[in-house]
Amino acid sequence: MLSRTADNLYWLSRYAERADFLARILDAAHRLAALPSSYGGRESNEWASALSSAGDPELFRTLYDTVNEHTVCNFLAFSAQNPSSIRSCIATARENARSIRTALTTEMWDTINGAWLELRSYEGRDLSREEFTQFLDWVKRVSLTFDGSAYRTMLRNDAYWFTRAGTAIERADNTARILDVKYQILLPASERVGGSLDYFQWTTILREVSAFNAYHWVYRESIKPLLVADLLILNPEMPRSLASCYRMLVEHLDLIADAYGRRGESQRLASKMRAKLGSADIERIFASGLHEFIQGFIAENNALGAAISEQYLV
Amino acid sequence: MAHTAFDEMNGGGIGQADPAAVRQAYDILKAWLDKTSPEHFNTRRSQAEMLFRRIGITFAVYGANESTERLIPFDIIPRVLTKPEWDFLERGLKQRVTALNAFINDIYGAEECIKAGIIPPDLVYRNPHYRMEMRAFDVPHDLYVHIAGIDIVRTGENDFFVLEDNARTPSGVSYMLENREVMMRLFPELFSRHRVAPVENYPDALLATLRSLAPQSATRDPTVVLLTPGRYNSAFYEHSFLADKLGVELVEAGDLFTKDDVVYMRTTEGPRRVDVIYRRLDDDFLDPLVFRPDSVLGVPGLMNAYERGNVTLSNAVGTGISDDKAVYSYMPEIVKFFTGEEPILHNVPTYRCREREAFSYVMDNLKDLVVKEVNGSGGYGMLVGPHATRREIDEFAKKLRHAPDNFIAQPTLSLSTCPTFVASGVAPRHVDLRPFVLAGADEIRIVPGGLTRVALKEGSLVVNSSQGGGTKDTWVLDA
């Protein structure tokens, strides 16, 4: 297939995944900000943290004076100046989709084009809290429908594999960004602050990756920071964990390599990271530095993105 | 003049909606129109619009700022042509496109028609669409115009005229195909009561045509691609639609490169050779090394590959000369000269303002004439005398006096009308027809019908989508 087509498919699914991530971050921030401060609801902190997980704080500062619910929601949801706002993600995904209409199934196109058309009904006016929540639910549904339509309707060929690789690498980046911003909440040192307050911070992290229920099924224990980190980083059952994302990346990059009869740098990097995550142990990661681990991961994930691009997309 | 127009349903003039006068081809349709309520039409029309919007058929209007993507209005009442009418048109179209190909082959080669005085040499050599580069070599199969859109207007029961020859990159065929799909979904009962010739085989015919034109150096399974200027082009939807139906890659210039005079596309598996390029990009932008150096839409080295016979461009470079409306005016002589036959399809009588006598006639009769730029298209830059104000006519006269060579004039034709669903109900509106003619190395293919464009404004004769025109499904009854 054309390199540009593969590139568009890959980025299309990255943007669809990113829109979902932004919606989850905003949703979780709303929940936490709504709590009384004795339960951890520290409004300004939570919005600042949402901003650093999901946006570019420097760009934000050039556009707004203060960090609060209104400005952060506007920046992450609707700002046209922010290339990673939900609005921009949907618009860019739709632009990508439009230029490769022929590589998409009707269902995928309908989802993206329909989302782009419907986006207008939310834009350009002040949404009530309830409407904003509906908006976030709608965004999550769009990503879900996109993902589902790709899964259900695409031919199982390189187009599909590039789409899945895009989803997986974006998802890995998103999970890692949450950990990057919130790692200190998970560290033992923060436990001294006291039980209930951190509890809601931990559950917020779980909600950000839609794993609040999953946690209990997997660990059958009350919420502990070490296990939260384990779930997000190493647990292969958890679809948004770094380990799961790399399992998916390796699988689809290998399928591409088999079809083309040639392996390259991206297969090598993905397998290496998968092996690393497979043999890692959460206690050892904590012992050697959670933050360093996460930062290292983000850098290597970016390197894989560059390798995929170099090998196939230009 | 509009009130005397021939109506394709009622015959004669508009005022005579006597049911007895309904033309036979419209019998069933007329009965259906009479018993269908406006509410039902409205429902169906909004369903049609939703279908079009969902599938993403839009076109960009240059210069419109509020939205760059719009739907071309679709009218849900089909236009009906009979089999004998179509057979006549088909013969005429084949003859005309055959002559166009022979003419273009001649002006870049033997120049017989110029030597024989059929057409003035300066009209050819000084034409902005004449490409000196094309004199240097022969294109595969001597065919230049592979895909033509010939605009036809009707003024009476048996009076069809060619209004324009579009031999560069004619667009609109996606509307022909999608209009039919939408009609079949909305009105299956109408199709069960008419025997409508299908158009859905157009993509197959197009692919067969393109493959037949592959250069000799290509393999037996030539690689065809469709080259688009990109998603900001007004016809991008059509490009992507066609590529999909053809099952070929939709490429932008950045996807192609040349090496040793061979064209390749960049794929995820490395470079792959390209044999036939169905390009929807004007000559000027094709190759920045030969034409406009500022073109970022083109492929450097493409013309060299073309001259070496390593790739076929479809249409060939330099076909724009036959879109020229002054050249058009010589088509009757051109058809006769190259085919040895009388032209089956007639031209609209045309005054060439470059000729002194014609010019003074035109200046004296501007209020009755349609004046067009010889290189204009899309309904831009033309004067429709009877609909123009005094001031518009005076303004236009100035332009005309300044550069008479750039204009031709034609009498205001009273284009035929067809029943059309508008705000006030079902009313007659003027239409034209663009059939698409495919000239391959093996045969000329035409799917029955084409794109009917309709001027939605009452009395208007301008059918272009950029000027508020709409489209209709076109039925050729296979009775």
UniProtKB/TrEMBL annotation, chain A:
Q: Which residues form the DUF403 domain?
A: 1-313
Q: What name does the UniProt record give this protein?
A: Uncharacterized conserved protein, Alpha-E superfamily
Pfam families cross-referenced by the UniProt entry: Alpha-E (PF04168)
From TrEMBL, chain B:
* Positions in coiled-coil regions: none
- Which InterPro entries has this protein been placed in? ATP-dep_Glu-Cys_Ligase-2, CP_ATPgrasp_2, UCP005522
Q: Which Pfam families match?
A: CP_ATPgrasp_2
Give every Circularly permuted ATP-grasp type domain span.
Answer: 78-455
Among PANTHER family, the record links this protein to: BLR5612 PROTEIN, SLL1039 PROTEIN
Protein name per its UniProtKB record: Uncharacterized conserved protein, circularly permuted ATPgrasp superfamily
